[in-house]
């Protein structure tokens, strides 16, 4: 090697070494940027404008409007699959279900091919068993339950053999246990909850022994805790929330506390009472929308027993749907007459609710009644 070439090589190596140094540190391997987590989304059914509004939830609980998307006539209840791929919306006045694909990055909704899908008369509560790709819809006027298979790729619905299933009286609220073994349905006119076993392969429903089980007056809202041990029923005219323990084998219900007295007549307090119920992801808290009292209440759950933790906290006029965000840090309530969404932070230890600084937020439509949240996978 001649001297001229060696000098050039030394200079070149020195240049590379200097470029690799910063504040005396050698340059390490180039790391790829962290993968962004899909944002959480919130959906609101606007029954008077026949739309679904979409919002992104940021880390502080604030809601950012993405837009509104057409649904059927008078949408109310909604359901999403566990992966956050699909949104299903029950249209009470057009007797069908609108199905949408959820863009996991933007939250925008795209109608599924073949949507909407026919149900019975006046579809209300909805429940979804993700592991079995099954959707159940309560047909309030039809006195039946429509059952659908969900195509896991497209989101299209197909009728389960034997659907619609009968044996219910004005069904309204619907919930399933965590394993998808049982379907719980409030019977609005019979003051009872019907319980069905679910065949995970066929989707067929069979009433369990002892069903229906008595409740208080006018059961409307219903929710199952994430652990699958309890079911909570909003007895609208009894002004109470009734907890039931669930037999994990048979699906039968047993009251945790004495049932409230039945109220035969609609008194002046008829529409001031519990309407919808939501359970915190930890199963330690329950949140109840009190429709005529314009408030939301928080309850601590201890082995199924409910104890008032906070409330009533003012919301807006006629709060209907109530939901937590996927993390359990926030609670959202839609106010039908104010056309907005009340947002609260949650103390997961005490159940205390604190209104967020930007609350309430416009719902993006007229007469919002339904609300769900999702974290796309």
Write the topology of this structure:
Layout: H1 3-19, E1 21-22, E2 25-26, E3 40-46, E4 51-57, E5 63-70, E6 75-80, E7 86-91, E8 96-102, E9 109-111, E10 117-118, E11 123-129, E12 134-139, E13 144-150, E14 157-159, E15 171-176, E16 182-187, E17 192-198, E18 205-207, E19 213-214, E20 219-224, E21 230-235, E22 240-246, E23 253-255, E24 274-279, E25 285-290, E26 295-302, E27 305-314, E28 319-324, E29 330-335, E30 340-346, E31 353-355, E32 361-362, E33 368-374
Antiparallel strand pairs: 1-2, 3-4, 3-33, 4-5, 6-7, 7-8, 8-9, 8-10, 11-12, 12-13, 13-14, 15-16, 16-17, 17-18, 17-19, 20-21, 21-22, 22-23, 24-25, 25-26, 26-27, 28-29, 29-30, 30-31, 30-32
Q: What would the keywords be for this entry?
A:
1 helix; globular; 5-stranded antiparallel sheet; Methylamine Dehydrogenase, Chain H; single chain; mainly beta; 377 residues
CATH fold assignment: Methylamine Dehydrogenase, Chain H
By helix and strand content, what is the structural category? mainly beta
Proportion of residues in extended strands: over 45%
Number of domains: 1
CATH arch. level architecture: 7 Propeller
Total DSSP helices? 1
- Would you count the extended β strands for me? 33
CATH class: Mainly Beta
Biggest pleated sheet: 5 strands, antiparallel
Describe it.
With 377 residues, this protein is mostly beta strands. It has 1 helix and 33 strands. The protein has one helix spanning 3-19; strands spanning 21-22, 25-26, 40-46, 51-57, 63-70, 75-80, 86-91, 96-102, 109-111, 117-118, 123-129, 134-139, 144-150, 157-159, 171-176, 182-187, 192-198, 205-207, 213-214, 219-224, 230-235, 240-246, 253-255, 274-279, 285-290, 295-302, 305-314, 319-324, 330-335, 340-346, 353-355, 361-362, 368-374. The strands form 8 sheets. Strands 6, 7, 8, 9 and 10 form a 5-stranded antiparallel sheet that branches. Strands 15, 16, 17, 18 and 19 form a 5-stranded antiparallel sheet that branches. The longest helix is centred in the N-terminal third of the chain and has 17 residues, at 3-19.
